[in-house]
Specification:
The complex is a heterodimer of chains A (about 80) and B (about 170).
Chain A: H1 4-11, H2 14-45, H3 50-71
Chain B: H1 2-10, H2 13-17, H3 22-57, E1 67-71, E2 80-85, E3 91-97, E4 103-107, E5 118-120, E6 125-128, E7 133-136, E8 142-144, E9 153-159, E10 162-167
Antiparallel strand pairs in B: 1-10, 2-3, 3-4, 4-9, 5-6, 6-7, 7-8, 9-10
Classes of the chains: A mainly alpha (about 80), B alpha+beta (about 170).
The complex binds FE2/S2 (inorganic) cluster (FES).
The site of FE2/S2 (inorganic) cluster has 11 residues of chain B, from loops.
Chain lengths: ~80, ~170
Amino acid sequence: MSDFRYSQNEAHPNKTNTLMTGIIVLLICLVTIQIWLLYSALNNALEENFGIALATFFGSLVLALVSFWLLRYLPEPRIIKSRK
Amino acid sequence: MAENKNSTDKIPNWKRDFPVDQEEATHVSRREFAKFLGLLSGALALGNGAIVVKSMAFPHKALEGEHFVCNVADLAPGEMHQFEIEGSKSIPYILIHLPEGGWRAFEQKCTHLACAVRYRADIDRIECPCHRGYFDARTGVVIEGPPPRPLPQLEAVDKNGKIYVRAMSEPLNV
Ligand code: FES
């Protein structure tokens, strides 16, 4: 069966590629920021700075939620066999 | 349905044994990588939460009471004495008799990677030999090197020729 999405994908196979790459780059950025937050939380918790531990936790949580939400936009895996 | 059955019959044996196309395989692995990044991100948030929980469950307790360390006569000016205080875990400290006559007590664990620091009278500084970190012998602040924080300090008091340590009564004014 051929529909609009199918012909679009046939004509521009790079679209999902770009989307996938974009999502992965965004995810890597988010994880990098989280590593930085965790690092400063560790450093500051040792110094009894409770506020920083709490603030970085909320920041990190928000970033994690954003990355979960980003996963919803992953392109569907192409089903090759059924199209042939 | 009948047509479908026909087409599966036509698939050669080798293809039935390895039913994943190369193209499909690479596509899936990128999806999985992205999902893994999502998982990692969740794990980092959890770890950050664990720090919060830990610092709420085990708040830092100041040293209680006074502890006898040594007699004034035992330590010449410019010398250092190592001692430990038993608590929930025993923490090593150093007692320094400053050349001009004061007394200082610091935790011996370097704030960088927990090497043992020592007082060097020739340069009048506390030195961490591991990565050449230097602390001020009077306040414990970092003068040089990688340590991120000053050394935790105890107050050392001279009572009739005996040195006692206790928690700092007022915080360091750094
Ligand atoms: S452990 Fe002391 S400077 Fe690195």
